[in-house]
Structure formats: C-alpha cells, structure tokens
Amino acid sequence: MASTIKNQAARRAEVRKAAEQPQSLFAANWRSWLLAALLIAGVVVAVLHWGDVKKFAALVAHAQPIWLLAAAAAQVLTYVALAIEWTLVLRMAKCRGPFGKLLGLTVAKHFADQMVPTAGMSGNVVLVDRLREISGSRPVALAALIMTVIAYYASYGVASLLALLLLWIHGQTSWVVIGLISASLGLSAGVPTLALWLHRKGAKAIPAWLRQIRTVCELFEMIKEAPTRLVRNTRLIGELTLLNCAGFALDGLTMLFCLFSLGVYVPFGIAFGAFILASIVVTLGPIPMGLGSFEAVSIGMLRAMGVPFEAALSATLLFRGYTLWVPLIPGMFAARRQLRRKKR
C-alpha cells in the first residue's frame, strides 16, 4: 500500500515537472527575444543618430566641466529616486530588495523604455520580471508597477502645473501652452484612474468576447493580484509622487546646468518650463523617444524666453545626450544582465 502511494506521488511529480517545462522554456525564449530586440534597437538608434552623439561629444569638449559634472550628478540622482520608490514599496510589503539591484534595474528599465517604443511596456515587462525575482512575489512586483505608474502620472500633473506657473511668471503663456498643459493634466488624471479601475475589476473590465482569449483574460486577472493594501495606500502613493516630483526637478536642473556650462545663466523656471513642455509633446506625440520633437519644442521655448538660439540648441543637445545617449551603453549592459540572470 505504501509503495503504491509512493509510486502515484512520483508519477504526479513527473507530470507536474513535464507541465512546467514548456513554461520555463517559453520564459527563457521570451527573455531571449526581448533582449535581442533591445540590443538590436540600441545599435540601430546609435548608428542612425551617430551625428547627434558626435555633436554631444564636441559640445562636452568646449563646455565648463564643473557644470557638466553637476548635470551628470543630477541625472544619477533621478535613477536613485526611482530605486528608492521601489525600495519603499518592497519595504511596505515586508520584502527585502538590495538597493544595488534596484538601482541597476532602473537603468535597464530606462534603456528598454527608450529603445523599444511600446509606451513603456517593454520596460514594465523587465520591471515586473526582475522585481518578481528580487521580492519573491509576483503580486508585490505588480503592485510596484501599478504604484510607479500612478505616482509618475500624478507627479506629471504637479510638474505641469508648476511649469505653467513659472511660464506665467516669465510672461510666456499662450493658448498653445495652456492646451498642452490641459492635455497633460487630463492624462495625469486618466491614467491613475484607469490603473486603479483595472486593478479593482480585473478581467471584468474587458468585453466578454475578449475574455474568451485566454492570454488577455489572464493578463487582466494578473493585474488584480496586486495587494489592495499596497495599491490603495494613499500615504505610500504620496511618498512615491514626491520622489517622482524630485525626479522632474532634477531633470529641470540638468537642463539648467547644461545652459550654465555654456555660459548662459538663466532662472530655474526657464529651464524647467522648457523641459516640461518638450516632455509633454513627447508623451502625447507618436514619435519614438521624441527624437526631433523634443529638440524643436525645447529650443523654441528657450528661444522665446530670451536664450540665444545657439545656446538653446547646444543646451538641448547636451540635455538629450545626458538623458538618452550617455545611458545607452550602461543601459544595454544592465538590460542584458537583468534579463539573463533569471535564465541561469
């Protein structure tokens, strides 16, 4: 009798192992495909825009080093702020996450978001996959993703209002600016509301015919797995929003320091307003990474606020170098390490 029970248990274990094997193979395959897509995209972007990279290098060679270092430090702190956000979520969930790993994950996520234009989905895939391994819990990883999205768009609305105020102080408001800010505020209110609604409803949020597609149904049910005590923790959301606001302020400081490095000294409000307006156009526009549109709006806003054209152009190219080209190589290695780590 005992031997029969043991044999049955052994057969059940073999069946479970066989059932899990395709899933693990699929997981390895999708990581390989995503890694390949990211690396290829990185190489293609670098080749197609090699002229911008060379211009950035030339500008760095002639700019004031102290302000270039200040701009670099401001950009590093934006990654630190995001890593702190995830640390707070994991701590609230009673999960441990080494800060060094989370900091490396911020670089990998930024690279994925920039290289594959999928409205942030590629970076979110990397985020959930790695946080799931770090925390040991898929629901906690999903909660971190949902709360990051909510906090980002909430802070985006705050930053947009602040930019409008600063532009008004400098006499640079117009119906175009007000329209862009209004669209940004609508997005800032709509995305968090949608995220919370999807979390509450799960698969019930989609039409019945879509629920017949197993993958789609499982995806929406997976969103519902995120612990409610985390996702609806208003104090934690407030802390994450403040950290995101700090990130926007650091980006504004980066633009300011780029202007300083060229010998152009302007108030913070001018640099911050130009950065936010350019970011709004990139967010609302269809162009991957905002290549061209960001530069056009940033230069136009700086020029309208009295910055000479040459300085506005050079500062914008320096800023894009810090936010796009400099993180390219470390981001490529970080994404490769993050996606391959799970396969070992």
Characterize the structure shown:
- The protein is mainly α.
- It has one domain.
- It is built from 15 helices and no strands.
- It is globular.
- Mean pLDDT is 77; it is low at 4-36 and 38-43.
What's the short version?
The chain is mainly α and 344 residues long.
The percent range for strand residues is: under 5%
SS class? mainly alpha
Rg value: 23 Å
Helix content: over 70%
Specify the overall morphology.
globular
The count of DSSP E runs of length 2 or more, i.e. the number of strands, is 0
Element-by-element helix/strand order: HHHHHHHHHHHHHHH
Please tell me the total number of domains. Answer: 1
End-to-end separation in angstroms reads 40 Å
Question: What about the largest sheet?
Answer: none
Key phrases:
globular, 344 residues, mainly alpha, 83% helix
Layout of secondary structure:
Elements: H1 2-48, H2 50-62, H3 65-92, H4 99-115, H5 121-135, H6 138-169, H7 175-201, H8 208-211, H9 214-224, H10 228-231, H11 234-261, H12 268-284, H13 293-304, H14 309-325, H15 328-341
Helix pairs in contact: 1-15, 2-14, 3-4, 3-6, 3-11, 4-5, 4-15, 5-6, 6-7, 6-11, 6-12, 7-9, 7-12, 11-12, 11-14, 12-13, 13-14
